[in-house]
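Hi everyone, sorry if this is the wrong subforum. Our group has a chain we'd like a structural model of before ordering constructs, and none of us has done structure prediction before. Sequence below.
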Amino acid sequence: MHLGHHLTRHRTLSCTAIGLAAHLLSLPDGSPADIRSLAARLPEGRDRIASALRELEKHGYLERVRKNLPNGTWVTLTYVYEDPAAARTAPEPAPEVTAPPTPKPTAPGAPAAPTERPPPPTLPSPTTHAPHLHDQAAELLASLRTADPRLTLAERDVRRLAPAVATWLERGTHPDAVRTALTTGLPAERLHHPGGFVAYRLAALLPPPLPRHRTGPPAPPPLQNCEGCDLAFRAPEPGRCPHCRSKSSPALHPQGAEP
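Answer:
Right subforum, don't worry. Here is the predicted structure as tokens:
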């Protein structure tokens, strides 16, 4: 690896930042580049490493991007550039990526393409008006900080997210299962937007409604033994079978005729 003089002779970067950049550029793709991992490999403490990372980020040698994976876990992607003047093209997202190949430069003076932020997730809403579920949902959201202080939600976030939690409860999800879905697998670093993190999981991990119980055809009447001929027949109550009832019925005769 050959380092350009624009890095090694930089007049603003500290020696710690220059050395840290050289170390990051020497790592293979996918190596951990968080403060904790770097402090475990280098003699500098976390404070000096954090300060050096901020220097590199300020001058364009380093870029940190937060991504959320399909399972709801948030990761930080770290990109290190040998030449910050070149236009950057980020590779496919992967957890804790560092030192990707040097991006291809664009024409001089070409403006960088704007970064499009993904739209916020569409939060689910309950199908029925159930104030008790809404109250239970608000209490659950407010108590998330007892599981992890980073999940301390603002009151406006609790009001905004309560209908989504009520939808989970309406679909038969136990409150403990909702709390587990929102508090497990959290990223190691700080949550800058806990409300957005909870909103993403509520939308992405929403369980389907419980299947409706199908009712089959009505059960036939029970079997009875005829009190006249002792034959079995179906009827709701004991008695005579239809044949015996027809024989015991009085015959109909025309008016004036003798039986």
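For your construct planning: The mean pLDDT is 78. The beta strands are 62-68, 74-80, 223-225, 232-234.
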